[in-house]
Please model this.
Amino acid sequence: VSNVVEANLRAAESSRGIGEVINVANGERTTLNELLDTLKRITGKTDARAEYREPRVGDVRHSLADIARARELLGYEPRVGLEEGLRKTIEWWKQSRYAR
Model:
């Protein structure tokens, strides 16, 4: 969330990104298995398991957002990594009315 806010603020203050499509991400590929492992580590819910199924038509097998344009046009650099961002989001959720 922090990275997206940073990119949006930079876009709002710059004329270079007007009318441009710009990817905002952390610049690293994360598999669903890595995401699950990270969430298990953060939450302590080690009993969570992946359920593997046959791919469906239209499923994206591999994805990596290219943030080169964000770097070039906005001077964007991700500051918050995946694990830190997930920790912050989970902590916010625990403190919010949604967790009650």
